[in-house]
Design goal:
Layout lengths: L10 E5 L4 H11 L4 E5 L10 H11 L2 E6 L15 H23 L2 E10 L12 H20 L4 E7 L12 H14 L8 H13 L7 E4 L7
Parallel strand pairs: 1-2, 1-3, 3-4, 4-5, 5-6
Helix pairs in contact: 1-6, 2-3, 3-4
The structure holds NADP nicotinamide-adenine-dinucleotide phosphate.
The site of NADP nicotinamide-adenine-dinucleotide phosphate (NAP) has 28 residues, from helix 1 and helix 3.
């Protein structure tokens, strides 16, 4: 593995790294040499703002690793129930925001650099009432493979989390959140729900493994097979 390639000049950026999975990635990277930049709306970077993304990366200068975990929100519901404007807004952030950030970061990525995106288990697990997340995550997985070719030898990978206990579910009641997590732990082959740290390990693996690009790393407790 390439952890030794981290040095005092290494710059890693985690978009969405203030909470949840992104925070766990940022914390793990912070234990290595170099600098970790954590950005999201709360410190001024909105993935819905194309110009702001370009300006951010221009000002930052050369970077080594980009991780994007931003944009967990998307409307649920079946075909006849989803508000298309809300679905488009979700796409604007998670899909187009990710693509824009990858494009702008790629201009500044140093040799040996990596981009690691985030999809989600619904990308390939057909589940009624989730088509917006399915479409967004499947689109990101497909695009990442194309980017891995276009940007080579920079490496581009995707981590696909399963149900993971994070701030993404903060709006739920304690009871509903607990029931959802318990149900996952009962039904998933791994017999547990995800913790942010479980999933964060996938990003580190993608960053460190010099032979890995165009890959989708499922860390979902077996959701694709369960
Ligand atoms: N948790 C799960 O069960 C699960 C399952 C499958 C896939 N995933 C995926 O994993 C990723 C991380 O999810 P998570 O559970 O860690 O969610 P989270 O805790 O809600 O984190 C998402 C982060 O995205 C940032 N964000 C939201 N909108 C943004 C915007 N417009 N511009 C910039 N940053 C924005 C938020 O910070 P600000 O509010 O400061 O902007 C937040 O810190 C997401 O892509 C999610 O879809 C999660």
């Amino acid at each position: 593995m390439n952890t030794h390639q981290f040095n005092d000049r290494t710059v890693s950026v985690v978009v969405g790294g203030h909470t949840g999975i992104g925070r766990a990635v940022a914390q793990a990277l912070a234990e290595r040499p170099g600098r970790v930049e954590v950005v999201s709306r709360r410190n001024g970077l909105d993935l819905a703002d194309e110009r702001a993304i370009a300006t951010y990366f221009e000002r930052l200068g050369p970077i080594d690793h980009l991780v994007i975990t931003a944009g967990s929100a998307a409307p649920g519901g079946k075909l006849g129930e989803v508000d298309i404007d809300a679905a488009k807004a979700a796409f604007d952030i998670k899909f187009w925001g990710t693509v824009t950030a990858a494009r702008e970061a790629a201009k500044h990525l140093r040799s040996g650099g990596t981009i690691t995106l985030t999809s989600g288990f619904l990308s390939r697990r057909a589940t009624a009432g989730t088509y917006v997340k399915t479409a967004m995550n499947a689109a990101l997985e497909a695009v990442a493979k194309v980017l891995a070719k276009e940007l080579a030898p920079l490496r581009v990978n995707v981590v696909s989390p399963g149900l993971t206990d994070t701030e993404a579910y903060a709006a739920m009641s304690h009871e509903a959140r607990h029931a959802m997590l318990e149900s996952a732990a009962t039904h998933l082959p791994a017999r547990r729900h995800g913790r942010a740290k479980d999933v964060a390990n996938g990003y580190l693996y993608a960053i460190d493994n010099p032979f890995m690009t165009g890959a989708i790393i499922d860390i979902d407790g077996g959701a694709q097979i369960g």
